[in-house]
Amino acid sequence: MSPDQRRITLALCVIVGLSLLVVAGLTFLVSPMAEDLGLSDNQVENVLAIPSVASLMAIFIAGQIGDRLGHRRALLIASAGFILGSGVLATASGALGVEIGLALCGGTAIALQIVALGLLQQTVPEGRAHVSAFTTYGMVFPLAFLAFPVVTAALLEVTSWRWIPVIWAIAGVLIGAIAFFALDRNAMRRPVGEWVTPVLAGIALTAAARSLAEMSHASPESPQVVLGLLISALAIGGCAAVMRRSGRASFSLRPISSGTLRLLLIGVGLVSLVGMLTYISIALEYLYDLTSLEAALAIVPAQAGAVVGAKFVAQWTMHRWGSLRAGRYLMFALALSMLPLLVMQPSTPAWYLVGIAAIFSGLGMAALTVLNADVMGRAPHESTGAVSAFRAAASSIGGALGVAVLGTSVISAVSVDGGQGYVSAAQLDQLAAGLRIDGVIACLIALAGWVSLTIVVRRTTEAEAKPATIS
């Protein structure tokens, strides 16, 4: 990389890393906050869901602001929103203030990530520098989840919960300073245009994702699932109607019109779908009688494996085989890495489960990093933000499907509200069986991703061979 490319890459990695403070530390923040403010169980559930809902709502808006307002300006606006949300949360006196603060933090955090990825592609569009930049970017996420939860939990042992959002606000100031001083000024690319279609697309995505997640503990015909799917369908219909009537709709599918790009986005969704660390953490808590903090510490090797996978495994495989073939091989290896879960029993040592998690986390993060680099590498130069948003949407849908497909068998096996002491031996047997089932399902899903990428490789090979055949 050139010095300018290296400067911008490192700046964007720091910005994205700091934006992950909220999602990585919220689980530990909720309990002392709820106790201090007297929040009910229903309010706590809402608090935990709000950042993800806000981020889903903001995905397609975020995809437009970088391309239309300029990436530097968009990052400055998002950092201001992040600071404001953190401030509202730090001074909240009840559920409303908490919800508003977390909604602002969640929405602006995803905006920072989407705009940063779009700018990264424009800064380092191809070559070995592209591989280096995207593998460095890829390891930011597991590094954040390796450090921030433990740091948040440790701080809450010695100080008030209100200092955590104060730290988030300071991080927002740092994000704004980095964007202002480390990134180049850029002029507005296009007129801002209308915002109805991105908003409707965000509503459709949010409603669909929430409905899929609800299926982990509710039947498909339950009112909340049906209502969510109905809202999603209506929002899609409204978005399509506006797009037909307006010749300059802000939201468009044109940036992902390539069949190859759509198949790669499916691959992104499938890798996100088989992300199982949350369920491994639950299993560690209940099978081995660990606290939430102890379980978080126990999966540190898995997060470390993800860091190694994102930076070193992804980089080595892309240099050796190219991004398309590397993604294909990594997806197949990811499928195989799920099979050791088939021998899980309640008496299986904890180190075995942690070791499996480290392996499939490393391979999964390597595959996701390779796919992200390939997806963004195919983005039109003027629409990197839009493609970044579609990538985030694919990942979000995959994660929501993961809750419904993989989370059900684990979550239903334990009485989460009652704690470990309320779980019987029969439930522990059911939990181990749930992990075995998840291993099979995750293997099949990863194999489906491998098939998808095999189709991409064959299409690309055939397209490259045509000119030679004609000549």
Automatic annotation (TrEMBL):
Keywords: Membrane, Transmembrane, Transmembrane helix, Transport. One of its GO terms (cellular component) is membrane. The chain crosses the membrane at residues 12-34, 46-63, 75-94, 100-120, 132-156, 162-183, 195-213, 225-243, 263-283, 295-314, 326-344, 350-371, 392-415, 435-457. The lineage of its organism: unclassified sequences, metagenomes, ecological metagenomes. The keyword Iron-sulfur does not apply. It comes from freshwater metagenome. This is Unannotated protein. GO terms for molecular function: transmembrane transporter activity. It is a multi-pass membrane protein. The keyword Transmembrane helix applies. Residues 5-461 form the Major facilitator superfamily (MFS) profile domain. It is found in: Membrane.
